[in-house]
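Postdoc handover notes: sequence design on the structure in folder B. Input C-alpha cells:
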C-alpha cells in the first residue's frame, strides 16, 4: 500500500504539471517549444519519480522483497531522486517567470530554459539515472521470476488437493489455528518466510508451520513416504597442539586499532604459548583430544554495538577486555580446535547459516558449531538474528562476563518478580555458562582467565583528584613516584610536580619500568583490572585500598545495573584472597597512619616476581582444555538422595558412593557438603574451609533424603517440613521454622544468595593449588 500510494502521488504530480503546461500552451502560444522541452524532461522525471517509492520505502513489513529492493536502490539512488525533485521545483519556478515575459521571443525563452536545466543538472546525472533504471529493470525481472515460481508452486499444491489446506483442529497442536491467522496477517513482516516458500496461501502457511516450525501437524498429502535424510555426523577429529600462530593472526583481521592491539599481544606471547603447549601435551600424556568446532563472536567490537573501545586504545582507555579476548582466541587456537572468528553481524549470520531476514524463522539444520563464545553484546545480536533457534541451541553458548551474573538476575521470571531485573541479565542460561575473569564470582568456577596480563598500564586523572594526592605525598617521602598517565601534547595532565609521568609506554618499556619499581599502588579503580597481576609478576608489591563498607550494586554507582550483588571488599579481591602478603597489602586508605606503616613495611621487604599458575599460558591452556573436553551445562536432572558420610577429623560431609558411577564433572569425589551460618552465602561458607562453591553439585543434594539426612547428621535436628519453591536461597534450612526448603527451578541454583533467616546447604569442592577453577581430580 505504501508503494502504491507513492506511485499514485507521483502520477498525480505529473498530471498536475502536464495540465499546467497544457494551459500554458493554449493561452500562451509563445511557449510552444518550451512546452516540448518540458514534456520530454518531465517524462524522464516522471519515470524516476514513479519508481521513487521503490527506493525510498523504509518499512520492512511491506513485502518479502523489500530488503532486496533496498539493496538495489541504495542510498545513492535516493540522493539522485532528491536532486531530481529539487530540479523540478527550480525549473517550474523558472518557467513561470519566463511565461510572464511578453516581450521575449520563443528562441530566447528556449535558451533560458536550456541554460537553467544545464546549470542545475549535476555532472553524470544521466549516467546515474541510466544505472538506476538498469538496476530497476534487473530487479523487475527477478521479482517476476519469483512470482512465477510462487504461482507455479501454488498451482502444484492446489492440483488434486482441494480442501486439503483447511486449517486443522488437532488437540495435539492447539496453537495451529492462531499461528495460521498470524501468518495471514504478518507473513510479509520478515523475508525469511518467503525464503522458506511462503507465498500468502493457506497451503504455504501450513507447510511452513508443520515442516519448518512445529505448530501444525504434518500434512498427509505431502510426500512423507521416505523419512528425511539426516546429515551424517562427520567423523571425530583429533585436536593437535599448534605453535604457528600466523593463521590465527590472519583470522583476527585488520582495520581497527583494537584488532591491531590484540594481534600485537598474540605475537609478543607466541613463544610462551608454544612452550606452554609442549608442557601441557606431556602433562596429558599426549592423550587423544577431540577437535571441537568453535565460533568466537566478539560482540563488543562490532560496529553494530557501537565499538566505543577501539578509538580509546591509544588514549589510555580500558584494555582488559581486549587482553582477555586475545588470550581466549589464542588458547582455543593453540589447543588445536577448528576456530572461526566473527567481528561483525554479517560474519555472524554467515557462520551460523541463518535465513535472510529479521530472525523470525528458525534454523532448519543442525548448529554448525559445538561451542560459541561471545559476550552480552554478541548474545543480543544472536537473539535478533537466530530468533526461535537461540533457545534450542543456547546450551552451546559461553558468555565472557567480566563481573559475573548471579542466578537471581539470570532467571527472567524470577528477576522480574523479585526486583533483580537489569539490562544485562535475564537470559535463562545455566550459571556455568558465564565465564568470568576471576575465580570467585558468585562461585561460578567456569572461568576463562587471561594469561600474564595487559600491555599498557593506564591511569586517569581521576586517580590524582578527590584527595588521592595526599597518599602520593606520603609515598614521595620514601621513594620516587612514577606514572603512565595518557595526555595530549596541548593538554598535559594535572599531576603533582614530583610525579614523573612517562605517558603511555610500549610493552617492553613498561616491563622495564615495572622491574625497576618497588611498589605498584592502586587508588580504588578500576576494579579487578589485570595491571596489578602484571606488576606482581615483575616483582612489585601491590598496595591497594580496603573498602568499608564493601562496594556493590546496592551502594556504588559503578556496579549499579550489573547483574550481581557481589560485595567487593577491595580494589582487587583476587589479589587479596589468593595471593596476599608479602606480594599484596590491603589497607584502609582513610587511616593515614595505617597507610604510612604499610609503606614503611614495604620498604623493608624484598620479594621475588610471582605469578599464579592459573595466570600463565600453561595454566590457561589446562583450564580451557578441561572445560571443553569435560563440561556439560545442560544436565538438569535432580538425583535422589546420595550416600553421604562424615569426613575424618572434619565437620564436612563427603560422597560415600562410587564417585564415577554418576555422570558428573567435576567428579563427585571432590564434593564437600557443609552448612553456612545465618546470613552467609555458600561462597563465603566454602571459603571459610579453604574450599570453593561448586554449582554443578547442587542437583545431587537438592532432594528430601539428602536434606533430612544432612540436617540430622550435621545440625543434629529433624526437619519437620520440606517445601519446594523458586528461591535462589534454596536448598536451605530455616532455623526459626525448623523447615528445609528445596529448589524448584534448577536455573536458580546459586552460590551467591544469602538470608538472615536461613542457613544454606552448600556444595563445596576442593581445588588444585594455583588452579582454583579445577578440582584435584578434574583432569
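Designed sequence:
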Amino acid at each position: 500500500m505504501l508503494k502504491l500510494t507513492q506511485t499514485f502521488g507521483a502520477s498525480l504530480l505529473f498530471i498536475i504539471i502536464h495540465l499546467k503546461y497544457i494551459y500554458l500552451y493554449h493561452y500562451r502560444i509563445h511557449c510552444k517549444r518550451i512546452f516540448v522541452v518540458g514534456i520530454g524532461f518531465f517524462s524522464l522525471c516522471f519515470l524516476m519519480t514513479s519508481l521513487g517509492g521503490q527506493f525510498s520505502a523504509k518499512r520492512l513489513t511491506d513485502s518479502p522483497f523489500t530488503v532486496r529492493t533496498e539493496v538495489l536502490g541504495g542510498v545513492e539512488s535516493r540522493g539522485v531522486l532528491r536532486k531530481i525533485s529539487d530540479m523540478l521545483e527550480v525549473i517550474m519556478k523558472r518557467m513561470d517567470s519566463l511565461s510572464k515575459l511578453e516581450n521575449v521571443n520563443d528562441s530566447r525563452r528556449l535558451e533560458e530554459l536550456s541554460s537553467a536545466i544545464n546549470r542545475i543538472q549535476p555532472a553524470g546525472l544521466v549516467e546515474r539515472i541510466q544505472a538506476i533504471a538498469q538496476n530497476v529493470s534487473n530487479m523487475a525481472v527477478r521479482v517476476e521470476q519469483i512470482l512465477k515460481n510462487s504461482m507455479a508452486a501454488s498451482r502444484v499444491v492446489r492440483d488434486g488437493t482441494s480442501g486439503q489446506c483447511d486449517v486443522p483442529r488437532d488437540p495435539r497442536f492447539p496453537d495451529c489455528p492462531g499461528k495460521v491467522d498470524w501468518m495471514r496477517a504478518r507473513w510479509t513482516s520478515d523475508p525469511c518466510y518467503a525464503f522458506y516458500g511462503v507465498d500468502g496461501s493457506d497451503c504455504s502457511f501450513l507447510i511452513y508451520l508443520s515442516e519448518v516450525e512445529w505448530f501444525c501437524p504434518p500434512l498427509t498429502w505431502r510426500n512423507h513416504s521416505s523419512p528425511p535424510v539426516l546429515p551424517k555426523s562427520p567423523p571425530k577429529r583429533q585436536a593437535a597442539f599448534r605453535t604457528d600462530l600466523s593463521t590465527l593472526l590472519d583470522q583476527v583481521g585488520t582495520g581497527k586499532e583494537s584488532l591491531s592491539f590484540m594481534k600485537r599481544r598474540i605475537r609478543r606471547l607466541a613463544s610462551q604459548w608454544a612452550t606452554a603447549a609442549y608442557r601441557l601435551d606431556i602433562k596429558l600424556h599426549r592423550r587423544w583430544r577431540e577437535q571441537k568446532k568453535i565460533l568466537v563472536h566478539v560482540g563488543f567490537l562490532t560496529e553494530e554495538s557501537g565499538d566505543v573501545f577501539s578509538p580509546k586504545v591509544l588514549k589510555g582507555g580500558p584494555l582488559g577486555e581486549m587482553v582477555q579476548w586475545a588470550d581466549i582466541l589464542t588458547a582455543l587456537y593453540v589447543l588445536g580446535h577448528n576456530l572461526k572468528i566473527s567481528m561483525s553481524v554479517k560474519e555472524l549470520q554467515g557462520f551460523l547459516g541463518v535465513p535472510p531476514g529479521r530472525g523470525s524463522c528458525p534454523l532448519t539444520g543442525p548448529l554448525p558449531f559445538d561451542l560459541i563464545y561471545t559476550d552480552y553484546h554478541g548474545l543480543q545480536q544472536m537473539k535478533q538474528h537466530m530468533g526461535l533457534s537461540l533457545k534450542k541451541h543456547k546450551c552451546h553458548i559461553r558468555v565472557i562476563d567480566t563481573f559475573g551474573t548471579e542466578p537471581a538476575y539470570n532467571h527472567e521470571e524470577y528477576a522480574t518478580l523479585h526486583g533483580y531485573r537489569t539490562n544485562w541479565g535475564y537470559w535463562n542460561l545455566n550459571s556455568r555458562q558465564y565465564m568470568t575473569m576471576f575465580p570467585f564470582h558468585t562461585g561460578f568456577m567456569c572461568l576463562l582467565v587471561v594469561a600474564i596480563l595487559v600491555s599498557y598500564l593506564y591511569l586517569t586523572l581521576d586517580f590524582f583528584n578527590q584527595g588521592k594526592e595526599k597518599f602520593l605525598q606520603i609515598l614521595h617521602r620514601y621513594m620516587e613516584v612514577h606514572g603512565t598517565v595518557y595526555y595530549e601534547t596541548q593538554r598535559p595532565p594535572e599531576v603533582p610536580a614530583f610525579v614523573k609521568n612517562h605517558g603511555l609506554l610500549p610493552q617492553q618499556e613498561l616491563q622495564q619500568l615495572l622491574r625497576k619499581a618497588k611498589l605498584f599502588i592502586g587508588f580504588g579503580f578500576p576494579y579487578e583490572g589485570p595491571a596489578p597481576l602484571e606488576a606482581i609478576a615483575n616483582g612489585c608489591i601491590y598496595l591497594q585500598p580496603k573498602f568499608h563498607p564493601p562496594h556493590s550494586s546496592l551502594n556504588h554507582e559503578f556496579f549499579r545495573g550489573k547483574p550481581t550483588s557481589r560485595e567487593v571488599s577491595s580494589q582487587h579481591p583476587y589479589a587479596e584472597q589468593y595471593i596476599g602478603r608479602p606480594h599484596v597489602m590491603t589497607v584502609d586508605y582513610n587511616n593515614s597512619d595505617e597507610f604510612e606503616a604499610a609503606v614503611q613495611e614495604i620498604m623493608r621487604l624484598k620479594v621475588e616476581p610471582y605469578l599464579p599458575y592459573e595466570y600463565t599460558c600453561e595454566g590457561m591452556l589446562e583450564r580451557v582444555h578441561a572445560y571443553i573436553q569435560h563440561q556439560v551445562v545442560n544436565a538438569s536432572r535432580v538425583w535422589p538422595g546420595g550416600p553421604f558420610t562424615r569426613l575424618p577429623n572434619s565437620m564436612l560431609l563427603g560422597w560415600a558412593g562410587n564417585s564415577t558411577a554418576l555422570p558428573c564433572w567435576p567428579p563427585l569425589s571432590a564434593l564437600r557438603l557443609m552448612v553456612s551460618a545465618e546470613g552467609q552465602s555458600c561462597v563465603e561458607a566454602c571459603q571459610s574451609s579453604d574450599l570453593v562453591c561448586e554449582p554443578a553439585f547442587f542437583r545431587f543434594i537438592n532432594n528430601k533424603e539428602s536434606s533430612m539426612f544432612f540436617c540430622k547428621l550435621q545440625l543434629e535436628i529433624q526437619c519437620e517440613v520440606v517445601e519446594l519453591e523458586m528461591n535462589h536461597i534454596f536448598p536451605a534450612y530455616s532455623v526459626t521454622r525448623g523447615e528445609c526448603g528445596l529448589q524448584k527451578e534448577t536455573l536458580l541454583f546459586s552460590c551467591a544468595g544469602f538470608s538472615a533467616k536461613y542457613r544454606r546447604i552448600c556444595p563445596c569442592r576442593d581445588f588444585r593449588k594455583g588452579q582454583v577453577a579445577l578440582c584435584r581430580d578434574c583432569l
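Context for whoever picks this up: Residues 66-99 form the longest helix (34 residues). Don't rerun without checking with the PI first.
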